[in-house]
Amino acid sequence: MRHLLSVSDLDAATATSLLDTADRLKQALLGREVHKLPTLRGRTVITLFYEDSTRTRVSFEIAGKWMSADTINVSAKGSSVSKGESLKDTAATLAAAGADCVIIRHPASGAAHRLAAWLGREGGSGGSGPAVVNAGDGTHEHPTQALLDAATLRDRLGSVAGRRIGIVGDITHSRVARSNVMLLATLGAEVRLVAPPTLLPVGVGDWPCRVSHDLDAELPGLDAVMMLRVQAERMRGGFFPSAREYAIGYGLNERRLAMLPEHAVVLHPGPMVRGMEIAPAVADSPRAAVLEQVRNGVHLRMAVLYHLLAGAPEVR
After folding, report:
1. Known binding site: residues?
2. For the domain that residue 98 is a member of, what is the CATH number?
3. Which pLDDT score is estimated for 82?
């Protein structure tokens, strides 16, 4: 695996291998007073974030440090980007400085692919530049989020294949939804998107999923439901009448939680807007796996770095 830019880079075997590696890394760290593995000692991992982040950025940093990599954070607000430096020049700088892996979050869809192309050329004719991980590009994709969600579903449900997963809310602006639909379908799940028509993207009919506008009708048949935040910062114009109306139609409250099968799990990629897409009592319920997603995110991102930078099948 050269880069991780999209879940379309992953077939079922590769995705499963990443999930299995994350499980082995989790087991390798159990009982250790110091959470450190020597696997990536001497490697340099740079996080390059042009958008704000808590979970993704912190978990990548922890993942790199737990594997003994030198981990460096670069933000647009505190770098030469704020002086007008282009992404291409920033990429060249990072490659010249000796980065082995660049993890990028950017508001422009496709930015991670462009970065990988530039870094490949900067690496010379052999294409030996740094590996690139897409940590979210615009409204396009967020592949490591989809992988950690799949890891959480495996932990809670035993398997992903054959399960029916609902993804609810602002599909149009959600890179998490796009990556999850593709990855879950690749792993054999049946995916249902539930949203008002105004929050479904053009072309959704070509995605490997079914679409519904009726949340109450879908809940009794789901093994898991993933609630999405309404991304007001990406919206231009009115997509629904009010936050209250949205919560009435598409919020997961205690009444709707009771409509799910007893084994069903609730996911949310965060940050949560409590009282809008998810009620506080649901977010704090034992059936919610929100913090498990965060914990699994560290191990999953360790696995991604391991596959990109170590490339060996064993974990020591």
Report:
1. 55-56, 83, 105, 142, 145, 175, 229, 270-271
2. 3.40.50.1370
3. 67
The residue range of the domain holding 213 is 143-291
Annotated binding site for carbamoyl phosphate: 55-56, 105, 142, 145, 270-271
Binding residues for L-aspartate: 83, 175, 229
pLDDT band of 242, cuts 50, 70, 90: confident
Does the pTM exceed 0.90? yes
Q: How many other CB atoms sit within 10 Å of the CB of residue 127? A: 13
Q: Are 81 and 106 in contact (CB under 8 A)?
A: no
Residue given tokens 């890179």 in the structure block: 175
Same domain, 158 and 285: yes
pLDDT digits (tens, 9 = 90+) for 68-96: 999 999 887 766 676 788 999 988 899 99
Q: Which residues make beta-bridge pairs with 46?
A: 72, 102
* pLDDT (0 to 100) of residue 128: 72
